[in-house]
């Protein structure tokens, strides 16, 4: 008879220990603050909204990707790699963070980018170029159809040039990158303990799922009663529930096959709007409202869309029985600038 070891029965009733963190570099400004948004909370009349300020992990390095890269780049260095290959949209925050860190560590970065070559490099792409990353542009269609091939191609090209490549998947979301948000969950847990807060829900934007996966795993160990909700900014809840669960299972098998508690993956896909990097006027209005009410800067691709989702849920009374909710601000400020024509219009009516 086979003995079922995963997940162990007791783990559903008792907290299990997180395995020790694997080797990682210290690159981000940590811990990031946990801040109350008193006016936004009051105007909504719902629970108190706390923001975990992961937009403050750095200046040009703002955002969530650096937490994952602390683990991935330790692995790259351990393998003696000297060039990082990664991928994303032309305005990818992840590619920008990778390009900057590569330059800081004396490595090269090669970026596989989805989208047309813009006439002038702006925002994240401008920072990629300043940090000396080499870039290759592909149409959305080609990128979607051939991404694994493109990685293999560039790996070959760079190897033939005598370099040692290290490939990082979309958003840095693999089992290694996931550790960054397991560690972030631990950090947030300690801050909540210090403030004596017991939020029942933690919300983040979900683009490749690594942030949601790490938080779900970390909280599953430390605060199993907390719901971690990923607000999808592109694909469906079905897609992310299965991707995030799969990443969690791979992580569990690799690092803690006997001790990983069973977790519930929750994705909300009601606020994607027209599609990835496409936002409606509602989202722009939420971004304007957060800016003028609290000095909180959100972007239309990730944090603005996800925060707009949280605001709608609060307005609909979904969280009215709760005292506190936490929103993880995952950065992305440079993603604002390509929307200057939509956001800069003085005639926009305030609908909130
Ligand atoms: C990448 C990104 C996200 C999404 O994080 P994932 O771990 O890829 O799901 C959210 N916000 C910002 C600003 C990002 O750059």
Summarize the structure.
The chain is α/β, with parallel strands linked by helices and 352 residues long.
Task: Give a description of the structure.
The structure is a single chain. The chain is of the alpha/beta class and 352 residues long. It has eleven helices and ten strands. It has helices spanning 38-44, 65-78, 93-105, 123-130, 140-160, 175-195, 210-222, 237-255, 281-294, 303-315, 340-343, and strands spanning 34-36, 48-53, 83-89, 108-114, 134-138, 165-167, 201-206, 227-232, 266-268, 324-329. Strands 1-2-10-7-8-9 form a six-stranded mixed sheet, sandwiched between helices. Helix 2 (65-78) crosses helix 6, helix 3 (93-105) runs parallel beside helix 4 (123-130) and helix 6 crosses helix 7. Mean pLDDT is 94; it is low at 4-13.
List the helices and strands and how they pair.
Blueprint: E1 34-36, H1 38-44, E2 48-53, H2 65-78, E3 83-89, H3 93-105, E4 108-114, H4 123-130, E5 134-138, H5 140-160, E6 165-167, H6 175-195, E7 201-206, H7 210-222, E8 227-232, H8 237-255, E9 266-268, H9 281-294, H10 303-315, E10 324-329, H11 340-343
Parallel strand pairs: 2-10, 3-4, 3-6, 4-5, 7-8, 7-10, 8-9
Antiparallel strand pairs: 1-2
Helix pairs in contact: 2-6, 3-4, 6-7, 7-8, 9-10
The structure holds pyridoxal-5'-phosphate (PLP).
Pyridoxal-5'-phosphate binds next to helix 3, strand 7 and helix 7.
């Amino acid at each position: 008879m086979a003995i079922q070891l995963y997940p162990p029965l007791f783990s559903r009733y008792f907290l299990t220990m997180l395995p020790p963190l694997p080797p990682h570099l210290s690159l981000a400004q940590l811990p990031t603050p946990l801040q109350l948004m008193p006016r936004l909370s009051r105007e909504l009349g719902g629970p108190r909204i706390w923001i975990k300020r992961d937009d403050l992990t750095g200046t040009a390095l703002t955002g969530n990707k650096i937490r994952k890269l602390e683990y991935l780049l330790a692995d790259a260095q351990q393998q003696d790699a000297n060039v990082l290959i990664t991928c994303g949209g032309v305005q990818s925050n992840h590619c920008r963070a990778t390009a900057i860190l590569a330059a800081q560590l004396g490595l090269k970065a090669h970026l596989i980018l989805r989208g047309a070559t813009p006439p002038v490099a702006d925002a994240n792409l401008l920072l990629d170029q300043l940090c000396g990353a080499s870039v290759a542009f592909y149409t959305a269609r080609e990128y979607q159809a051939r991404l694994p091939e493109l990685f293999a191609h560039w790996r070959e090209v760079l190897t033939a040039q005598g370099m040692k490549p290290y490939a990082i998947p979309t958003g840095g979301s693999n089992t290694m990158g996931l550790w960054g948000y397991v560690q972030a969950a631990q950090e947030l847990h300690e801050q909540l303990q210090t403030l004596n807060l017991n939020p029942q829900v933690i919300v983040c934007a979900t683009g490749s799922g690594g942030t949601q996966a790490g938080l779900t795993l970390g909280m599953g160990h430390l605060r199993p009663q907390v719901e971690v909700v990923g607000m999808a900014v592109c694909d469906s809840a079905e897609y992310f529930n299965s991707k995030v669960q799969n990443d969690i299972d791979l992580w569990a098998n690799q690092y803690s096959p006997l001790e990983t508690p069973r977790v519930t993956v929750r994705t909300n896909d009601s606020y994607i709007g027209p599609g990835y990097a496409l936002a409606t006027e509602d989202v722009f209005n939420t971004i304007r409202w957060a800016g003028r009410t609290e000095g909180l800067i959100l972007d239309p691709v990730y944090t603005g869309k996800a925060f707009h989702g949280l605001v709608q849920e609060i307005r609909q009374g979904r969280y009215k029985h709760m005292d506190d909710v936490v929103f993880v601000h995952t950065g992305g400020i440079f993603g604002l600038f390509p929307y200057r024509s939509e956001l800069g219009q003085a005639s926009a009516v305030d609908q909130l």
